[in-house]
Design goal:
Shape: rod-shaped
Radius of gyration: 49 Å
Largest sheet: 4 strands, antiparallel
Length: 212
């Protein structure tokens, strides 16, 4: 006996496949939404954690900035204290410099040369004097440059011909000069000579004009 199915089985199969596809599509959409939600929550958690870390880092950086400011202030105070200490040490070391200045000037002064004016500006000494000849001035420059540890870098600024009247009929030609020399600090002298004392310095100063 032959059975003939007259029902629309193709439409039913197509509808069944369509229902399965729609169901799978809905499940896929639901799974995708669930995964997307989980990913979103994970990302939000990572962002929140990173923001908390950034906040902690910002607070630590602020603390470090304050510490750096305190350290900078301490360094400035230390620098100021060292500068004051150095100034005191320089004053203590240079208290005998006038003695060395006068003593060595007399010692290095050649015959036929005398000073008429001396001016000090910090460590620079400007000397004005009179010499019998230019050779005497050159000798003074050599003495100040080579023979004394208390003078450095002597420099002749000016030399002008002049005349000195020693008597009614005794007029001699001389050289009026101006020179500059640097006075060396005691701390810069490797082996400073012992000070001669205030009394000897006064005697030395008084003996300068006697070399006319």
């Amino acid at each position: 006996m032959i059975l003939i199915n007259l029902l629309p089985h193709r439409e039913a199969a197509r509808k069944k496949r369509q229902d399965i596809f729609n169901a799978s599509l809905g499940v896929s959409a639901l799974a995708g939404g669930l995964i997307a939600g989980l990913v979103f929550l994970w990302i939000e958690g990572q962002i929140s954690s990173q923001q908390n870390q950034n906040k902690v880092l910002a607070e630590e950086i602020k603390k470090l900035d304050n510490q750096i400011k305190d350290i900078a202030a301490l360094e400035e105070e230390i620098t100021a204290l060292r500068a004051r200490q150095q100034a005191v040490e320089n004053l203590q070391a240079d208290r005998n410099l006038p003695v060395h200045l006068l003593t060595d000037l007399v010692r290095q002064l050649p015959e036929g040369v005398y000073f008429v004016n001396m001016r000090q500006d910090n460590q620079l000494i400007t000397l004005q004097g009179v010499a019998q000849s230019q050779e005497r001035v050159s000798e003074l420059l050599r003495n100040l440059s080579n023979n004394s540890p208390w003078f450095a870098k002597p420099e002749l600024i000016e030399i002008v011909a002049g005349s000195v009247t020693l008597g009614k009929s005794d007029v001699r030609r001389v050289a009026n000069f101006t020179m500059r020399v640097r006075l060396v600090r005691s701390s810069e002298v490797p082996r400073a000579e012992p000070g001669a004392g205030v009394a000897s310095a006064a005697v030395a100063a008084a003996s300068i004009p006697a070399k006319k």
